[in-house]
Specification:
The complex is a heterotrimer of chains A (about 350), B (about 200) and C (about 190).
Chain A (H helix, E strand, L loop, with lengths): L2 H28 L6 H9 L12 H10 L12 H12 L9 E5 L20 H6 L16 H5 L5 E3 L5 E3 L9 H5 L5 E5 L4 E3 L8 H4 L11 H5 L5 E4 L2 E4 L9 H5 L5 E3 L6 E4 L8 H5 L5 E2 L7 E2 L9 H5 L5 E4 L12
Antiparallel strand pairs in A: 1-4, 2-3, 5-8, 6-7, 9-12, 10-11
Helix pairs in contact in A: 2-3, 2-4
Chain B lengths: L2 H12 L12 H7 L3 H25 L8 H23 L1 H7 L10 H9 L6 H31 L1 E2 L2 E2 L3 H4 L9 H19 L4
Chain C lengths: L2 H11 L10 H7 L3 H33 L5 H23 L1 H7 L3 H5 L2 H12 L4 H30 L10 H16 L10
The chains are: A alpha+beta (about 350), B mainly alpha (about 200), C mainly alpha (about 190).
């Protein structure tokens, strides 16, 4: 047994290990990178989903930008107002308001109302399918329905429904916008959660061209622009564009649209009820867009509950304050980041 | 710890936490050395030796090794055992050593061994670490046996050197299985079968 | 040996991943996206060259003269681990851009079979320093080729309808088998049989 060899190899290996250890220890001190404490603190309050909604590369990127002062403090839509507040506390500044957003599908053309043009047998992704002559649907503007949005949602809030349309779980959606950015057709839109009425069509065709390819597509009949009491709708390129500031979410356009191209996100609508203060002036009978009020002159008027959609137009014109809106307006889910 | 749960450390490694097919670690030598059943088991034996040795030693000294330098210490321990088995094979099994080639010293970076040292031996007692090492080694050997056998039967018509297929098969064997593509293909199919069998259970 | 043959041999004929099976863990782990594959390839090239030099020098100038050849396993792996950690610190301090691109891959490479494999193969083939460098560069380029090709394939596989039990690893392995089959065609290219 050559003890010399054992000794030399033990010493050699030990010495090598020691040298490496010393070099690394010195290096870790000399090459230390100063870490911004505030960056670490901001990063700690961020949700860590790395969804990119803020516009920065992941939560690390946003924390770095906030700490260096090059990013607004309220950009995290997943964390919402509470995270913005926390960031504000760390940075010693006021964070701006965060309007909670939610993703909404602005196309109602499921496979039952919007037929296909050809059978598509390629890679099962909307982006691939959309490259092929605009997609397998007869309507080239509409949702392709192969589930790219479901794949890119970091929160698992989107599933594909039986109709080949994505179903967005508003409880899980954080408004990060990944699905909106990923959709090749632009049929997903980020909408403020408080917004209840949204146009669900993106087709720029009109009339027969739309009816041929989709039963619920907007045919640019312009009826909605005429019945809107707030003047919030204007036709642009064969589609009614809604001014969110003006819209009062009354829901008249939803029911007046002949192709049912609007969606009403409210989970419940009130109904008008006429109380005994009614003077029988018939102002409400004339004002109701749906002819849901019947009444003889000078006699108590009555609202036909099954026709009433709760738009409140009658209440606006009643001189006797005789109309009450009964039942709450069911606001859409406020989201987690309220 | 009661007796039944102790044996769990051993039993898990064979099927439930099989290193190659479930944990997906230690793939390199699996594909490279499973050309025949005998070579495959030879490799499994070498890995067993190193895994058992390193798990036991790491577990023995776990209380005196500070956390920050544990990885280099593990590596030194593992490389010691690898060097031992390297020279043992060179001396007593030269044919096997030639087949295994560069994969013998590469055992030192085999994810299974470093992984088990870090994930298990560092935090458990000696007997439990021994059981864990034996379990994982048994699981590894099982996979190696299956792969080596299939590849040998298809590519040479023999099993452990003994002819098990008719002569007409042996005269026109499926060489695809000996070459790298065959190895990839085989493990893909095996993993697919494993996924099917464990669907919903894992 | 002809330098061009060493380079070609390491790059195509005996591609380290598809022919030698060395470096599979990062191959399957990192090739899920094209971007990460590029990053990993760059990191591997960088570390592989450094490791080849350092290990060759240590082997021929230290271990052989002192008769401590049997320590090569321990020495190589220790030096590579220390080297990678040192490089990571240097990058983090002086080359922030490169660090954010490659930094996360460096710890993964430390126990990468490919790096250590190259150092051992350099000894087995009795290469001199120049030949070792060429072999390391060729191997790293072969690694890059294999991983980038495979990442492109896997990205397409993501969207294909595959039965649930084959999604992920199984179909990736079968895909690798087909790519490997293609590389098998390079056997005896230019008469190389490394």
């Amino acid at each position: 047994m050559d003890w010399n060899l054992v000794l030399i190899s033990a010493a050699g290996l030990g010495g090598l290990g020691l040298i490496i250890g010393i070099v690394l220890a010195i290096a870790s001190v000399k090459l230390a990178v100063k870490v911004d404490e505030r960056e670490a603190a901001v990063r700690a309050v961020l949700p860590g989903a790395n969804c990119g909604a803020c516009g920065f590369p992941g939560c690390d990127g946003y924390a770095a930008a906030v700490a260096s002062g090059s990013a607004p403090l309220n950009k995290c839509s997943v964390g919402g107002a509470s995270v913005a507040r926390s960031i504000g506390e760390i940075m010693g500044q006021e964070a701006g308001a965060v309007e909670p957003m939610v993703a909404v599908l602005i196309c109602r053309g499921g496979k039952d109302v919007a037929p296909a043009r050809f059978q598509y047998k390629g890679a099962a992704d909307c982006r691939h399918a959309a490259l092929l002559l605009g997609g397998p649907k007869a309507c080239v503007y509409g949702c392709v329905g192969l589930g790219h949005c479901a794949k890119v949602c970091p929160f698992g809030a989107i599933t594909m429904g039986r109709n080949n349309l994505p179903v967005i779980d508003e409880k899980k959606c954080t408004g990060c916008g990944n699905c909106v950015r990923g959709c090749p057709k632009g049929t997903l839109l980020l909408v403020p959660r408080s917004k209840l009425v949204v146009l669900a069509c993106v087709s720029h065709d009109k009339g027969k061209a739309v009816k041929d390819v989709c039963r619920v597509g907007c045919t640019a009949c312009t009826l909605c622009t005429k019945v809107c009491p707030a003047g919030a709708l204007t036709m642009v390129n064969n589609l009614p564009v809604m001014d969110f500031e003006k819209c009062i979410d009354c829901g008249i356009c939803v029911h007046k649209c002949p192709t049912r191209s609007f969606i009403d996100r409210a989970r419940g609508r009130p109904k008008a009820v006429i109380n005994p203060r009614c003077t029988g002036c018939q102002a409400c009978v004339r004002a109701c867009p749906f002819k849901a009020i019947e009444g003889e002159p000078d006699k108590q008027h009555k609202v036909l509950a099954d026709k009433c959609i709760g738009c409140g137009e009658c209440r606006k014109v009643c001189p006797a304050e005789a109309i009450d809106m009964v039942g709450a307006l069911g606001h859409a889910h406020p989201g987690k980041a309220a | 710890m009661s007796a039944p749960s102790r044996w769990k450390y051993f039993a898990d490694g064979i099927i439930k936490e099989n290193p190659v097919l479930i944990l997906m670690i230690g793939l390199c030598p699996t594909l490279a050395t499973s050309v025949s059943a005998r070579d495959a088991l030879g490799m499994a034996a070498a890995v067993t030796f190193v895994l058992v040795g390193s798990n036991v030693v790491v577990s023995l000294i776990r209380k005196v090794v500070p956390g920050s330098v544990r990885i280099p210490i593990f590596i030194i321990i593992i490389s010691t055992f690898v060097t031992i088995i390297d020279y043992v094979l060179q001396a007593y099994q030269p044919a096997l050593y030639r087949v295994l080639g560069v994969f013998v010293p590469l055992i030192v970076v085999n994810c299974i061994i470093l992984g088990r040292a870090e994930a298990f031996a560092y935090g458990h007692g000696v007997f439990d670490s021994l059981l864990d090492a034996l379990g994982k080694s048994a699981g590894y050997a099982l996979v190696m046996l299956v792969m080596g056998s299939i590849r040998e039967i298809f590519a040479a018509g023999t099993w452990f050197g003994v002819a098990v297929t008719p002569a007409w098969f042996r005269s026109a064997p499926v060489l695809f299985m000996i070459f790298p593509p065959g190895a990839f293909f085989l493990i893909g199919i095996l993993k697919g079968i494993v996924n099917r069998l464990t669907a919903g259970k894992v | 040996m002809n330098p061009a043959k060493i380079l070609m041999g390491a790059f195509l004929v005996n591609n380290i991943i598809l022919m030698r099976f060395i470096g599979l863990c990062p191959f399957f782990g990192v090739s899920t996206s094209l971007e990460t594959s590029f990053g990993m390839s760059a990191a591997v090239l960088f570390v592989m060259m450094l490791a080849a030099w350092v290990s060759w020098l240590l082997y021929h100038l230290l271990l052989v003269p002192t008769g401590l050849v049997f320590l090569r396993t321990a020495v190589f792996i220790l030096v590579i681990a220390g080297l990678v950690q040192f490089v990571e610190m240097v990058l983090k301090k002086y080359m922030r851009g490169l660090y954010s691109a490659l930094g996360i891959y460096l710890p993964l490479i430390t126990t990468n079979c490919a790096i250590l494999g190259v150092t051992f193969l350099n000894i087995d083939y009795r290469f001199n320093l120049l030949q070792s460098t060429l072999f390391a560069v060729g191997t790293a380029l072969g690694f890059a080729l294999a991983i980038i090709l495979f990442a492109a394939i896997r990205e397409r596989l993501e969207d294909s309808p595959i039965s649930p039990s084959f999604k992920g690893y199984p179909i990736a392995f079968v895909g690798a088998s087909l790519v490997s089959l293609a590389f098998l065609g390079f056997t005896s290219l230019f008469g190389i049989s490394l």
